[in-house]
Write a structure and sequence with these properties.
Elements (H helix, E strand, L loop, with lengths): L3 H15 L4 E2 L10 E5 L4 E8 L6 E9 L4 E9 L7 E10 L3 E3 L2 E6 L2 E6 L4 E3 L6 E7 L5 H4 L3 E7 L5 E13 L12 H4 L2
Antiparallel strand pairs: 1-3, 2-5, 3-4, 4-13, 5-12, 6-11, 6-13, 7-10, 8-9, 8-12
Length: 193
């Protein structure tokens, strides 16, 4: 049986894939179910022109005036708790004119408080590097994914400069701990909470 966050993410990305998105993005305004851009409105004027291409998830031309403290693409993953030792995988086909390190994190909300789990892997994107990237993360006991059972959001920090971003495809997958897929050996620290 698939983890509920995987089912929710599959549905969210399928809706985004089928949507015709043209126009401007608003800060924290949903482009499609559970998908939105966020940025620092105090630090910069951000203009994101959106377009759809058949078979792709999202194309955005981003123009910045100023330097925002943050500029992100957020994708809601739904609710559910992950087990200690579970491995999450994010397969993403993303290109950008500005080079940046793709280093997403998952924000979990528990009791009205936000907690972040930074994925163990990152990938270099843009400026001549292209193609799919696979990022893996094994859940440790101290991470919010293991104890915050409420809503999780995948947050992708984007380059804080003008340029084009094309998200061609994305998949999230989950391997329970009992399947034996681990990024690194288990240690006493990884099991402690």
């Amino acid at each position: 049986m698939l983890h509920p966050c995987i089912v929710e993410t599959m549905n969210t990305l399928d809706q985004l894939r089928r949507a015709t998105i043209v126009g401007k993005a608003g800060e924290s305004a949903h482009l499609s179910y559970n998908v939105y851009f966020c940025w620092d409105q105090q630090g910069a004027d951000v203009d994101i022109a959106l377009s759809s291409q058949p078979g792709h998830l999202l194309t955005a031309d981003i123009a910045l005036r100023g330097t925002p403290e943050w500029l992100t693409l957020s994708i809601g993953l739904g609710s559910g708790t992950f087990g200690v030792g579970d491995t999450l995988g994010l397969a993403v086909d993303l290109s950008a004119t500005a080079a940046f390190d793709l280093a997403p994190f998952i924000r979990s909300v528990d009791g009205g408080k936000r907690h972040d789990t930074h994925l163990a892997d990152a990938a270099r994107i843009g400026n001549g590097t292209a193609g799919p990237a696979l990022l893996l993360h094994t859940v440790d006991a101290h991470e919010p994914l293991a104890w915050a059972g409420s809503f999780h959001t995948l947050i992708i920090p984007l380059p804080r400069q003008s340029g084009k971003l094309e998200l061609r495809d994305m998949r999230l997958f989950h391997a329970p701990a009992q399947k034996g897929l681990r990024l690194r050996p288990r240690t006493l620290a990884s099991a402690a909470y």
